[in-house]
Amino acid sequence: MVLQATVRSRRIEFELNSSILPEDDSSSELSGIPVERKISYDWKHVVSIVISSLTILVLIIIWEAVTYFGLVQPLYLPSPEAVILKLWEASTTGYMDATLWQHLSASFTRIGLALVVAVIVAVPVGLTIGLNRTAKSILDPLIEFYRPVPPLAYLPLIVIWFGIGEFSKVLLIFLAVFAPIVVATAAGVSKVDPIRIRATQSLGGSRWQIIKFVVLPSALPDILTGVRIGLGTGWSTLVAAELVAATRGMGFMIQTASQFLNTDMVIAGILVIALVAYLLEIGLRYLQSKLTPWQGQTH
Questions:
Q1: Is 287 within the bounds of a domain?
Q2: For FRET with 47, which of 16, 41, 214, 222 sits at 20 to 30 Å CA-CA?
Q3: Angstrom distances, CA of residue 126 to CA of 62, 171, 185, 232, 257
Q4: Within 163-215, where are the H helices?
């Protein structure tokens, strides 16, 4: 009997893996698409990159022209050369007893810890909300109650309750990241095709096998989208979190520079934050395309 149950379980896993997840004969997202369409896609992608690069170049030229002709005082808008020089100084000699890399490392540590904890907690909560109506009735109002509130609104309360240590900073970022992941996960679960669930049940699949082989793969694109949204929200909240008794971090660096009217350092910090956020978004998009290659395909 034990052997029969094991064989049956393996059979269910094999059939679910082969039938529910789409086949991916190539590592490319464009596998199965005619060569002409691939070339057209590549050309449009190149044109998009060129246009984006030209847009950034035009903005830099306008910035350089405005500062070169003295249309704005350097106190309010320093030249690109001054900002680059400040970045180099911060990277080598440091700023406020820490180099740029040390400030970045402190910020990455806080947001990385908050993101990992948020994913670990939010995904099971989202799955529970999507699969259980009673849990949804209990948890959904609580999440929807605090989700629209800006993180800065409950920052003073967090400081009163937990002090000004690292825990308060990580908790603030966690709260900013948690809600988008929960909402996205629950939405992904609600989109699961009931036919797939019934097919799994007809094969004798248990509730855990339904969640593992049907619900999670179907909801994964929405979960990753929620992580992308949450990371963007958390990264913007990071600056506010580091204004509270921090000694390192990008938010601390910008805040300190603004107090001393170091506009070039403020702009340099803003540009670094924007660049890092952009690279994180590109990385998550790439990860999403690799983990969910079937997304957007019609079978």
A1: no
A2: 222
A3: 46, 19, 5, 19, 41
A4: 166-190, 194-202, 207-210
* 25 located within any domain: no
62, 55 Cβ separation under 8 angstroms: no
What is the end-to-end Cα distance of the chain in Å, rounded?
A: 38
Q: What pLDDT is stored for residue 41 in this prediction?
A: 58
State which residues of the chain have pLDDT below 50: 1-7, 12, 14, 16, 18-32, 298-299
What's the domain range around 46? 34-69
Gap between the Cα atoms of 2 and 228, Å rounded: 44
Query: Which amino acid, residue 244?
Result: V
**132: in domain:** no
CA nearest neighbour of 216 among 237, 189, 191: 189
Residue 198 Rama label (left phi>0; alpha psi -120 to 50; beta)? alpha
| pLDDT for position 9 | 52
Output the six-digit token pair for 142: 């609580």
The predicted pLDDT at position 105 comes to: 93
In a domain, 46, yes or no: yes
Predicted local distance difference test score (pLDDT) of residue 29: 43
Domain count along the chain = 1
Q: What is the pLDDT of residue 112?
A: 92
pLDDT digits (tens, 9 = 90+) for 99-139: 999 999 999 999 999 999 999 999 999 999 999 999 999 99
Cα 105 from Cα 64, distance rounded (Å): 31
